[in-house]
Design a protein that fits this description.
This protein is α+β, with helices and mostly antiparallel strands and 227 residues long. The chain is 42% helix and 19% strand. It is globular, with a radius of gyration of 18 Å. InterPro entries: Acyl_CoA_acyltransferase.
Amino acid sequence: MEEITFKILVADVSHKSFAQQITDEMANSAKARGTGIAKRSIEYVQTKIEEGKAIIALTGDGRWAGFCYIEAWGHGKYVANSGLIVSPEFRKYGLARKIKQEIFKLSRLKYPDSKIFGLTTGPAVMKINSELGYIPVSYADLTDDNEFWKGCQSCVNYEILMSKSRQNCLCTAMLYDPNAPKNKLAEMALRKDFNKRIKLFDRWVRLKKFVFLKLGKSAKSFLSLFI
């Protein structure tokens, strides 16, 4: 693998020119995965950059490599780290983890008392979240801000979400609560082997897809999820 140097920093107005590239890759990635992601306009991404609520990764020679931004809901009671995306040519360098770490730090700096949550179908993101202190929770533990849930309307799984009265979907909900008692976190934390074996996350996602999408697999195929 070619050795490449990356700069991971808080985005500013000098990075607004990357907004088109970022939104295009968000759409392409969602299409490739066959799962939804809230669509964001170029103007929306540029606003996040102007507000200092985004992290951007660039190569040493100035090429865009990755991005993530902060959204606040419920008058700042809840914060989401959204739109995590890495350019396809740089997806073997551990950038997603580094970007998530930096956007988490920025969220804690700007919203020190807010709960930070995320919805994802990606096992890799679930593992990274776990390393940062997130725990799996029910949808009822997330914000009830309608503006947040409106963002799911562009997701291919939106009908599933609504059929479950916004209480479940293919995405797994994870939450970091800065004010939660440590013993509660320890009690609810993911099993140690989940932290070490990403395949267990992947099996969980596959099982959820089986249940919600009713894939009609044979009993033998279903049992293979756990073998």
